[in-house]
């Protein structure tokens, strides 16, 4: 091949690449989110093959969805905290403390005063947990926002204080159980699920919501004379979303039959709670003033303050919201265990921060999505679940999670600097190291 032919070939390749980039840009698809979806598919496929076909089963995927719910709920709040250029290291300890308080309400405080078997016990427990979570979040947030103390120091102190209070309340390691029967449903299980027909109703509502979201987004863009995606792409995205929802309901929810009743379990209540919180957090972050203020602060704190944004109140609000979400996660975890133990929430802060970062949230601030954090939580739990199936020892599991976290941050830093080749190298090195650790950690 002569020089002219070589130049022509390079020009053709460049033209194809440019057309592909233009097509991706026209679809307005979040490339990071799409990359995470591909990564999740690769992880699921690899673990399914390595486990001899045990990973992609209805039972394992149902358990995976329930296990991911608690971390994903907190990860939605962690996104806003990291976006605002802060961090919360206390979420695991705060979860444990709030879970212990809610268990005390159900097993000690109300029974000692009014006796057992009251219908309102679970309601009071939730109200106390959520109110206390908001109050403790406000305490930490006010010290950070108004006191000027770095979030790392304040939440590190909270990490120690809340864990210490658990042992003070727990009388050196006492387990509190059983919990209220209705409260237990929040944690899932054979009775804590929607069942078959209600799961299909939820799936139908999900499909309607996906189609409506695309339709109204298109209508809103036209109203303000903004560019809209090509109609075939919108139709394709709507069809793809509906197919994913239907397959998820069929495989994860309806495909798993309860070992107790023998009937399809359906979507577990923790997953329903996660879906509701995700929708609410997406709406809060995208459509409400509070969410826009958080992203503005993360993008440029000085400009946000000069623009009239009450940055201190907004930052404190993110920690109040985080406290509420910790209470919801605490309810899910304690209800699932039907007890409160002193080591509840240990290392959850690592999983929550990892889920947010893997989901595309940048420590530089101003960048992050709620849906990405939820997907990041699923990826994190998929790694742990797959390694358990492969009988990987616990220390090796922690090493893999650490490698994945560092790789995700390195990839984010490289992409922000426009170094795509460096990002690719970081991804390849992370995958190789993680694979080697998994191979050597198999028992």
Report on this model:
This protein has 443 residues and is an all-alpha fold. It folds into two domains: 54-192 and 276-387, ABC transporter involved in vitamin B12 uptake, BtuC; 193-267, no CATH class. The protein has 17 helices and no strands. It has helices spanning 3-27, 31-50, 58-83, 91-114, 121-145, 151-169, 181-184, 196-223, 231-254, 269-287, 289-299, 301-306, 311-337, 348-358, 370-389, 394-416, 420-441. Helix 3 packs across helix 11, helix 4 (91-114) packs antiparallel against helix 5 (121-145) and helix 4 runs parallel beside helix 6 (151-169). The radius of gyration is 23 Å and the shape is globular.
Any chance you could write out the topology, listing elements then pairs?
Blueprint: H1 3-27, H2 31-50, H3 58-83, H4 91-114, H5 121-145, H6 151-169, H7 181-184, H8 196-223, H9 231-254, H10 269-287, H11 289-299, H12 301-306, H13 311-337, H14 348-358, H15 370-389, H16 394-416, H17 420-441
Helix pairs in contact: 2-15, 3-9, 3-10, 3-11, 3-13, 3-14, 3-15, 4-5, 4-6, 4-13, 5-6, 5-13, 8-9, 10-11, 11-13, 14-15, 14-16, 16-17
What characteristics describe this protein?
443 residues, mainly alpha, ABC transporter involved in vitamin B12 uptake, BtuC, globular
């Amino acid at each position: 091949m002569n020089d002219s032919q070589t130049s022509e070939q390079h020009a053709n390749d460049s033209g194809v690449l440019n057309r592909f980039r233009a097509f991706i840009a026209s679809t307005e698809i979040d490339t990071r989110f799409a990359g995470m979806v591909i990564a999740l598919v690769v992880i699921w496929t690899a673990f399914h093959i390595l486990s001899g076909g045990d990973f992609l089963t209805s039972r394992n995927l149902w358990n995976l969805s329930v296990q991911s719910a608690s971390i994903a709920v907190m990860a939605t709040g962690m996104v806003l905290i990291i976006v605002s250029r802060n961090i919360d290291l206390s979420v695991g300890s705060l979860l444990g403390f709030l879970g212990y308080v809610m268990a005390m309400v159900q097993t000690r405080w109300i029974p000692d005063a009014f006796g057992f078997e009251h219908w309102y016990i679970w309601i009071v427990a939730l109200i106390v947990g959520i109110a206390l979570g908001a109050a403790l979040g406000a305490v930490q947030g006010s010290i950070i926002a108004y006191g000027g103390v770095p979030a790392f120091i304040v939440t590190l102190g909270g990490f120690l204080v809340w864990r210490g209070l658990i042992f003070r309340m727990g009388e050196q390691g006492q387990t509190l159980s059983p919990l209220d029967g209705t409260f237990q449903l929040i944690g899932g299980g054979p009775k804590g699920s929607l069942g078959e027909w209600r799961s299909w109703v939820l799936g139908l509502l999900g499909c309607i919501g996906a189609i409506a979201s695309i339709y109204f987004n298109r209508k809103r863009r036209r109203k303000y004379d903004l560019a809209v995606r090509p109609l075939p792409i919108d139709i394709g995205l709507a069809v793809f979303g509906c197919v994913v929802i239907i397959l998820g309901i069929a495989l994860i929810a309806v495909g798993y039959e309860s070992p107790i009743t023998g009937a399809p379990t359906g979507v577990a209540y923790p997953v329903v709670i996660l879906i509701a919180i995700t929708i609410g957090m997406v709406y809060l972050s995208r459509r409400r003033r509070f969410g826009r203020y958080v992203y503005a602060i993360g993008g440029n704190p000085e400009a946000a303050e000069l623009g009239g944004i009450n940055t201190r109140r907004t930052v404190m609000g993110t920690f109040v919201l985080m406290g509420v979400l910790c209470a919801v996660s605490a309810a899910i975890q304690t209800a699932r265990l039907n007890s409160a133990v002193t080591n509840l929430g240990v290392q959850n802060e690592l999983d929550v921060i990892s889920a947010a970062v893997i989901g595309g949230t940048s420590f530089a601030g101003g960048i992050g999505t709620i849906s990405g954090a939820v997907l990041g939580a699923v990826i994190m739990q998929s790694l742990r679940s797959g390694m358990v199936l492969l009988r990987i020892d616990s220390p090796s599991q922690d090493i893999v999670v650490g490698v994945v976290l560092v790789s995700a941050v390195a990839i984010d830093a490289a992409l922000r600097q426009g170094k795509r080749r460096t990002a690719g190298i970081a991804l390849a090195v992370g995958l190789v190291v993680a694979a080697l650790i998994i191979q050597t950690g198999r028992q």
